[in-house]
Amino acid sequence: MENPYVTLSSRIAYENRWTRLREDRIRRADGSDGIYGVVERADFVVIAPWQNGRLTLVEQFRYPVGTRVWEFPMGMWEHAPGTDPAILAAAELREETGLIAGRMTHVGEIFQGPGYCNQRGHIFLATELTQGAPDREATEQDMICRDFPLAEFEAMVRDNTLREAMTLSTFGLLRVKGLL
Question: What is the pLDDT of residues 56-67, one digit of tens each?
Answer without folding.
Answer: 999 999 999 999
